[in-house]
Q: What sequence folds into this?
């Protein structure tokens, strides 16, 4: 990759490309048709999230995980949560309402993914009320519209600011050229699940690229059993017809001559069978409604041969409505409403004018025009909470990619950020990338990040039958991480990685029991140390076979106690295998493909102190094109393993059982 006009840098890039190309050619004995491999496999995969501009995975000052559109199709992923759950070092929990992302052994119960920054095409997607990163059915994008998902682990505040605490997720969407023409997709599966998508992609006569898609999905869900409610007066612990999930999504995107306009809208209604916050069990009125709308405009321009500019304007609205059913006379139904509205802008300049340097600098600004929380009783009418605030968030950053030598690059970065209600702070990033050989990079990385308390943590104070929710004076969380990684890519079809990391978290904000019974309080609870190792091997063979194995060992604990953190597995193991498979008479076209994925999560501790056994879930998917129809058949949790995830404070059950064996059939037709 070019850095200014330094000839040594250019020569190094050429040597790397040549070595990778020659290595793969020799490995495949030259007789194979090398054109069968995509370019990103033949050369090094390009990533954009680590530095906010394009660079190869080996060059990036991070160990980036990438899931492509082909991976999504091949392994039959249905939600962003399943995509992230397949990545090295990540695990997902589900409490029948929301999906929660665990990163390197850290997943605090009651946290709405506030310590991971979610981007879509580089634009912040966390709302301004809960700082929530939506990854389940509440994520407003159909995965069929996703081109790739990148995850950069570790603190990213030097580049992105708040919430880039344990990592950054960037969802990059497809365009009209990739989904050319009208396309209809329908699917059906277990528990009354059904989904339909219609999309239209086209390129007009002026070169404008257009994509519009509408998706509607629903699931009846299965009846759920909860041992904590196993009594005759509570239907023997069986919540009937309360695990339903209904959603609607709209997506539109236009690109022309450096200008990109994007609209994403999603509405989801989810039944809550867990009777959280001491609700009446098995009451059909209990549900959550999430509605989100995002608008973004992006302009890219090459101001000069050595200076590029990217500018964005974006706006968003998020609304949460929670209906809580009680049987405490005279109270029958309580409603919780949260509304957030904001707009923002950011600009970034990338310069290669100085020899051996690639400089990037920019500014981010967000205006929170409305952050409101309301809690009321509907019958009889009563009000417990009406909290409103507005605010601003500002960040200024600079980073430099300095080629100290043809085989050594220094990455530096510094960002100053301030958010209303919190003090301003500086956050640095340092990275050394040493090219041991053209196919091997050794990376030493260090950075810090912060997370200010959000409006929910600051302002939510309400006295209900489910307990008193309150807060104390909160400080921003801070994390400091050091990581040493070795990446080896001897060919375009082979990649190996080994990394060791250590993090220290201070002023952790968590929801916990106070000394007063039935009281839940947000407070800064002290220091947490996380350390671990991760290893990953991926191999692709000519003809379509592929193997990937990833293992993670992590140890996360509060320094004040020898006990491990809640919902923190010591071991994670992921294995994937895919290959071609011909079923029956083939006729025209390529043979089908099958993919097997096994995800093992080690034992975890629940909030009650009990030990939840480890679990392993295996999925298998077969895809095949018949005439003009793409067919995908999937079996999830193939061996019907009894898996469960730890529950949060507001749920009476210590753990939540996950789905057993389920099925899905998907048909996609392009007109």
A:
């Amino acid at each position: 990759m070019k850095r200014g006009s330094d000839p040594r840098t250019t020569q190094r890039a050429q040597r790397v490309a040549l070595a990778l190309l020659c290595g793969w050619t020799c490995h495949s004995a030259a007789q194979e048709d090398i054109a069968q491999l995509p370019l990103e496999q033949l050369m090094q995969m390009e990533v954009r999230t680590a530095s906010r501009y394009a660079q190869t995975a080996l060059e990036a000052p991070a160990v980036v995980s990438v899931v492509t559109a082909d991976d999504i199709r091949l392994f039959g992923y249905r939600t962003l949560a399943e995509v992230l759950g397949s990545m090295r070092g990540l695990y997902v929990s589900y409490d029948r309402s929301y999906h929660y992302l665990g990163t390197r052994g850290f997943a605090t119960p009651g946290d709405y993914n506030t310590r991971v920054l979610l981007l879509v095409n580089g634009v912040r997607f966390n709302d301004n009320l809960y700082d929530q990163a939506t990854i389940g059915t509440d994520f407003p994008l159909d995965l069929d519209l996703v081109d790739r998902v990148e995850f950069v682990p570790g603190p990213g505040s030097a580049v992105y600011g708040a919430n880039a605490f344990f990592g950054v997720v960037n969802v990059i969407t497809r365009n009209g050229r990739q989904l050319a023409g009208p396309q209809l997709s329908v699917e059906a599966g277990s528990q009354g699940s059904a989904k339909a998508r219609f999309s239209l992609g086209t390129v007009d006569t002026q070169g404008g690229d257009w994509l519009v898609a509408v998706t509607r999905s629903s699931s009846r869900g299965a009846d759920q059993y909860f041992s904590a409610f196993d009594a005759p007066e509570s239907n023997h612990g069986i919540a009937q017809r309360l695990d339903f999930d209904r959603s609607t999504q709209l997506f539109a995107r236009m690109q022309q001559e450096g200008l990109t306009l994007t609209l994403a809208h999603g509405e989801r209604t989810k039944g809550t069978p867990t009777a959280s916050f001491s609700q009446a069990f098995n009451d059909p009125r209990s549900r959550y409604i999430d509605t989100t709308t995002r608008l973004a405009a992006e302009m890219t321009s090459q101001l000069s041969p050595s200076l590029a500019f990217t500018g964005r304007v974006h706006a968003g609205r998020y609304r949460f409505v929670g209906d809580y059913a009680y049987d405490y006379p005279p109270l029958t139904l309580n409603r919780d409403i949260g509304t957030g509205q904001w707009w923002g802008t950011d600009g970034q300049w990338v310069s290669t004018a100085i020899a051996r340097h690639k400089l990037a600098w920019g500014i981010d600004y967000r205006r929170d025009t409305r952050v409101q929380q309301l809690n009321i009783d509907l019958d009889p009418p009563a009000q417990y909470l009406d909290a409103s605030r507005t605010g601003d968030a500002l960040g200024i950053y600079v980073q430099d990619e300095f080629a100290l030598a043809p085989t050594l690059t220094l990455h530096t970065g510094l960002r100053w950020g301030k958010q209303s209600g919190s003090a301003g702070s500086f956050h640095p990033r340092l990275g050394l990338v040493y090219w041991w050989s053209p196919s091997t990079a050794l990376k030493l990385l260090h950075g810090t990040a912060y997370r200010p308390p959000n409006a929910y943590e600051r302002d939510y104070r309400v006295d209900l039958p489910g307990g008193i929710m309150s807060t104390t004076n909160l400080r921003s969380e801070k994390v400091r991480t050091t990581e040493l990684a070795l990446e080896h890519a001897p060919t375009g079809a082979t990649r190996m990685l080994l990394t060791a990391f250590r993090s220290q978290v201070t002023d952790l904000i968590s929801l916990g029991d106070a000394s007063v019974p039935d009281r839940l309080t947000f407070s800064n609870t002290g220091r947490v140390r996380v350390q671990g190792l991760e290893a990953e091997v991926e191999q692709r063979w000519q003809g379509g076979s592929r193997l990937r194995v990833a293992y993670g060992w992590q140890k996360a604990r509060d320094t004040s106690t020898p006990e491990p953190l809640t919902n923190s597995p010591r071991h994670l193991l992921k294995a994937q295998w895919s290959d071609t498979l011909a079923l029956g008479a083939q006729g025209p076209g390529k043979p089908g493909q099958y993919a097997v994925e096994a995800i093992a999560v080690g034992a975890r501790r629940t909030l009650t102190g009990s030990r939840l056994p480890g679990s392993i879930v295996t999925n298998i998917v077969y895809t095949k094109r018949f005439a003009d129809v793409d067919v995908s058949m999937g079996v999830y949790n193939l061996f019907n393993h009894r898996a469960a995830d730890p529950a949060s404070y507001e749920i009476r059950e210590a753990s939540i059982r996950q789905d057993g064996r389920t099925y899905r059939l998907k048909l996609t037709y392009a007109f």
In short: The chain is about 5% helix and 55% strand.
